[in-house]
Amino acid sequence: MYKKIVPVILLSVALTACGSANKEATPATESNTVATNESATTAQATTTEFKTYDADLFSIDYPASWKEYDTSNLNQPSVQIAFVDPAPKAKFADNLNVTMEASNITAKANSEQLIKFYETSATYMENFKLIEYKDNDNNSGVLVGEYTQPETKENVVLTQYLVPSNGNFYAISLSLGKASYDNGGKAMVDQMIESFTLNDETNTNNEVTAEQATSSAQTVTADMMTEVVPNVVADGALDDSTYNYIVDNSNLFPATTAADKKLAKAEVDSTITSKHLFKNINPYLDTMVSLTGDIIQVQEQETAYGTVATIHISDENDNSIVGIYKGSTGDILDGDNVTMRGVPTASYSFENVGGGTTNAVLLTVSTIQKN
C-alpha cells in the first residue's frame, strides 16, 4: 500500500551495510574535515588519532583513518555525514553517521520508541539487546545496544547519542563490531560522543523545557503523518490545515479514553460522506468525518512512533478509504465491518495487484470501532 515507515534515525542501522557489503568506503565529493586532533584514545598500546569534521551546524571528531561515506545515493537529506573504516579487520566495518530532523521529541521518548522497534526488527538487525540507556547533560541521552548483523552474522554494538535542540533532533550513531568495541572501541566511542558540539549559536542553550516536551507529545501524530503522506502520495505533503487540526486536537489522535472517544464522535460532521471526499477533499482537510466499510486489509507494524496500523476499507459506495492509526487495532481483522473517525488527509491512487489503479482517500484515524 505504501512504503514502510522507516524513521530517519534508523539510517544508522541501514548504514551498517556500508560496513559489511562494501570493504572500501565510497569517496564523498567534498569533506569538511579541517584538522587533526592530537588528543588520542589508547587501545592495547595503539594510539587512535582523530580528525575533526566541522560543519555549519555541528562538529565531531572521528578516527583519522576513517573515510567519508557518500550518502547521496540514500536520497535522505537528513543524513548530515557518515564515516566508515575502509580497512576492517572483521566482516563488519566500524562506522558513524549523524542525522538531523525537525522534531521536538525528547531523547528519552525517542529512545523508548527506538528500543521497541529494534527489538522487533529483523531487516537490519537480529536479536537486539539493550545494554543501557542513560540520560546525559542538557536533556540528551545515550542508548547502547547489541545485535547481530543479518548478512555477516557479526555481533555489533550500536551506540546512539540523542540530542534534542530547539526544534531539531540530532542522532549520532556509532556502530562497531563487538570485538572492536571491546578492544578499545568503547573509549573511542566515548571520545566521539564527547566531541560532538553544536555550532549554531541559537542552539547553545540545549535545554528542553516541560513546555517543549508537552509540545512534542501534541505533535507526534502530526509529525508521523508528515512522513507518511510523501510515501503515499507522489510529491505530496501533509496540508498545514490538517497538521494544525491534529495538533489542536492531539488528545483525539488517537482517542484512547472513553471521554476522548466521546469527544471525537461529537466532532464528526455527519453531513460529509465519502462521495464528498472523492469529489473534492480540500474543503474537509480540517474536519472530523466518520466512514464505515468492510476491511479489505489491515496491517500493523512497529515503528519509531510505536505500533502503527494501516486499515483499508471499502464503503457502501465502493470507495476505498485507507486509514492510518497510531496504535493497535486489537482484535479487528480482514473482513470485519468497522467505523473509522478521523480527518481526511489526502487523495491519491495506487496500483492493484491484478492490474489497474484504485482511487483512495487517506484518513488520519482518531478512533476505529468494530460494528
UniProtKB/TrEMBL annotation:
<dbReference type="Pfam" id="PF01789">
    <property type="entry name" value="PsbP"/>
</dbReference>
<protein>
    <submittedName>
        <fullName>PsbP-related protein</fullName>
    </submittedName>
</protein>
<dbReference type="GO" id="GO:0009654">
    <property type="term" value="C:photosystem II oxygen evolving complex"/>
</dbReference>
<keyword id="KW-0732">Signal</keyword>
<dbReference type="GO" id="GO:0005509">
    <property type="term" value="F:calcium ion binding"/>
</dbReference>
<dbReference type="GO" id="GO:0019898">
    <property type="term" value="C:extrinsic component of membrane"/>
</dbReference>
<dbReference type="GO" id="GO:0015979">
    <property type="term" value="P:photosynthesis"/>
</dbReference>
<feature type="domain" description="PsbP C-terminal">
    <location>
        <begin position="49"/>
        <end position="197"/>
    </location>
</feature>
<feature type="signal peptide">
    <location>
        <begin position="1"/>
        <end position="19"/>
    </location>
</feature>
<dbReference type="InterPro" id="IPR002683">
    <property type="entry name" value="PsbP_C"/>
</dbReference>
